[in-house]
Amino acid sequence: MRILGLVLAAGLLAGMAAPAAADAADGAKLFKKKCTTCHRLDETGKKKVGPNLWGVVGRPIASAPGFRYSKGLSKHKGKTWTEENLDAWLTKPRAFAKGTRMAFPGFKKAEQRAAVIAYLRSAVE
Ligand code: HEC
């Protein structure tokens, strides 16, 4: 039983470190399922309903050339898509930017947001 306890404790610790070590492979699957209807993620710069997300982690908010952003998201111009901002955005886009045109309700689970952000970051590397 003591060993089991240790294993469980180790598992808990690993779970706590999850946001840093988020699984980009899980993120890739989520992205394909939830985001590719509206977003491309490649160097072409081509848009769909939403802007191309190539290099979006660390990119200035609402800055894709030739994309017409909503007023709500444009209000955040001058700020950067840090992981924190992306996390807030993907929790509930409408709360982050009132009147946004991104018709995606958000991910309730922090692991899902972290995985997608890890994927967005890793795709560029
Ligand atoms: C139904 C279409 C749709 C879906 C699904 C969607 N998006 Fe979007 N996304 C948009 C639109 C439209 C915008 C521009 C929003 C605005 O101007 O208010 C946007 C903007 C963004 C931005 C800001 C980009 C920038 O250049 O500032 C990010 C980041 C983003 N989406 C990530 C995602 C991710 C990750 C997913 C999947 C979990 C997703 N989106 C799903 C349509 C969508």
Short description:
With about 120 residues, this protein is mainly alpha-helical. It has helices at about 1-15, 25-35, 70-75, 85-90, 95, 110-125.
List the helices and strands and how they pair.
Elements: H1 2-16, H2 24-34, H3 71-74, H4 83-91, H5 93-96, H6 110-124
Helix pairs in contact: 2-6, 4-6
Bound molecules: heme C.
Overview of this protein structure:
- This protein is mostly helical and 125 residues long.
- Helix content is 46%, strand content 0%.
- About 8% of the residues have low confidence.
- Heme C (HEC) binds next to helix 3 and helix 4.
Based on CA atoms alone, the radius of gyration comes out at 17 Å
SS summary, helix count: 6
Query: Might you state the CATH topology name?
Result: Cytochrome Bc1 Complex, Chain D, domain 2
Secondary-structure-based class equals mainly alpha
Q: What's the CATH H-level homologous superfamily?
A: Cytochrome c-like domain
Beta-strand share of residues? under 5%
Q: Say what oligomer this is.
A: single chain
Portion in helices? 40-55%
Return the domain count.
1
Order of helices and strands: HHHHHH
Mean pLDDT: 89
**What overall geometry do the principal axes of the alpha carbons give?**
globular
* Main pleated sheet: none
* Strand runs, count: 0
Distance separating the two termini:
43 Å
Q: Which CATH C-level class is it? A: Mainly Alpha
Small molecules in complex:
heme C
Residue runs with pLDDT of under 50 for 5 or more positions: 11-20
CATH architecture: Orthogonal Bundle
